[in-house]
User: Fold this.
Amino acid sequence: MAEENKKEIELEISGMHCATCAVTVEKSLSSTPGVMESKVNLATGKARVLYDPSQVSVSDLTGAVEKSGFSVRFEKAVIKVGGMTCASCVQTVQKALQTIDGVISADVNLSNERAYVTYNPSLVDIKKIRDVIHNAGYQFLGTDHDEIDESEKLRERELKQQLFKIIIGFGLSLVLMGMMYIPDHDMHLLSYVQLIITTPVLFWLGTPIFRAAFGALRNKTLNMDVMYAMGISVAYLASVLGTFSNRHINEFLDES
Assistant:
C-alpha cells in the first residue's frame, strides 16, 4: 500500500480495566476493514491505529471501539468566532471546520457567535482550528476557557480600525466630490487623479469583504460578502473602463 494512504491516529479509550479489555478493543479495531495495525496500551488508556483513510474514517474507528463495549474520549472546545452576519456565514464556518481531519463534529451558533467543536487532539489542535477559521474569512476570538478574554481586546481593536477606515473613506469621498466643482478643470486629468486616489483606498477598505468572499467561495457557499464583493468589483471595473474609454472617444471626436 502506498505510504500516502497510511495514517496514524491515537484514540483515548475509556472503560478499560484489565488486559482482556485492551485485547478486546485491539481485536475490534484490527478487524475493521482498512485498519493495518492497532495497538492498545492499558496503562495509558490509548489505542494507536495505523489505517487507510480511503477505506475507513475516524467515525468508523470510533464505532468499532463502541461495538466492543467501550468508548472513545474526544476533546471539546467552544470557539468564539467573529465576523459572522448571516446564516450563510454559519454554513461557511461550519463546513470549513467539518473538513478538518480529526474534527468529529462542529456546530456553529450565529446568535452567540460560538462554534462548538468536538475533535481528536492527536490529529488536530486549537491552532489548526484557528487557521481554518481565518482562511474561511472570519476571526478566531479565542475559546471560552481562555484565562484572558482576547475577544474583548480584539473587538475593541477591530472597532478602532473600522472607525479609522470610516473617517478616511468619508474624508476622501468628500475630496472626490469636491473635485467635481473645480472650475475650468481638465476632465481627463481629473479622472486619472480620482483613479489614483480611489484604487488603493478601495482595496484597503474592502479587504475584509474580499477576504470573506474568497473564503466563502473556496468553501462553495454564497453569502452577503460575495454579493458585496461582486458589486464593488463590477462598479470599480466599470469606472476604470469608463475612464479610459471616454478619453479615446473624446480624442476621436476631436480629430473628427
Notes: Residues 23 and 208 are 53 Å apart (CA to CA). The chain has seven helices and eight strands.
